[in-house]
Specification:
238 residues; alpha/beta; Rossmann fold; two-stranded antiparallel ribbon; binds zinc ion
Length: 238
């Protein structure tokens, strides 16, 4: 019912037009998609030191628990920004396809890994109806034929959305210790008699990387649980 209302409101106020060139019938036409340039990931996303593609410098890797950050485009790309906003805040689910295709175009996504999405708090998930990071994760896992685990970590509490907070310190404090290993996943490990994270590489998916606080908090609990490497994979880097 809500879905139907949402859809008709969407059609009324937001007719299907390419967000790049206004061509009707699609939110992103092929020609605008092809113009989106995949960035060169050759600077540490936390401190800007030059690094090999997608790497995080040693110091920051230790501090922030992430081993790599693979990102498609800068958030300053006006079209990508519009696409992400429409996907997240206008709930245009079908944008998961082209946005995840951008993720699949980046070289170096490891194939023997587990894909995990940054979860939403359960109340927010109910309000939003879908977790945008999980939709991207599903597409990526399918594209590379690698397993997707949807319930590895969960949020322990509600937090103000990071986008509403400007300064870095407050952002970190806002989200500190917000994730824990999901009891459902613990049960699954007990059922299979093994730590399913041990010695694994996890590809942790989110839409945007700004300060990296969210990915870092999630990576922290995954590392504590035995994961070998954590790679962040995001559409845009702010
Ligand atoms: Zn277009
Ligand atoms: Zn660094």
């Amino acid at each position: 019912m809500f879905q139907a209302i949402r859809k008709s409101v969407l059609d009324l106020f937001f007719p299907k037009k390419c967000l790049g060139c206004n061509k009707t019938g699609t939110y992103l036409c092929d020609s605008c998609f092809n113009k989106i340039e995949i960035a060169q990931n050759n600077k540490c996303p936390f401190c800007d030191r030059p690094v090999a593609p997608s790497q995080i410098c040693e110091k920051c890797a230790e501090k922030y628990f992430l081993d790599k950050l693979i990102w498609a485009t800068p958030y300053s790309n006006a079209l990508v920004k519009e696409l992400i906003k429409a996907f997240k805040y206008l709930y245009i689910k079908e944008l998961a396809k082209p946005l995840s295709q951008l993720l699949c175009l980046i070289p170096g996504v490891k194939h023997d890994a587990i894909v995990v999405a940054i979860p939403l708090y359960k109340k927010r998930l109910r309000e939003r109806d879908f977790n945008q990071a999980e939709l991207l994760a599903k597409e990526v896992a399918q594209y590379f034929s690698i397993p997707l685990e949807t319930a590895v970590i969960k949020r322990t509490r509600f937090a103000t959305p990071q986008v509403k907070i400007k300064d870095h310190k407050t952002r970190r404090a806002n989200i500190k210790n917000i994730f824990e290993i999901n009891p459902k996943f613990v049960k699954k490990c007990i059922g299979e008699n093994q730590n399913l994270l041990k010695e694994k590489t996890i590809i942790l998916i989110d839409d945007v990387f700004t300060t990296g606080a969210t990915l870092s908090e999630a990576a922290k609990v995954l590392k504590q649980a035995g994961t070998k490497e954590i790679w962040g994979l995001v559409v845009a880097k702010g």
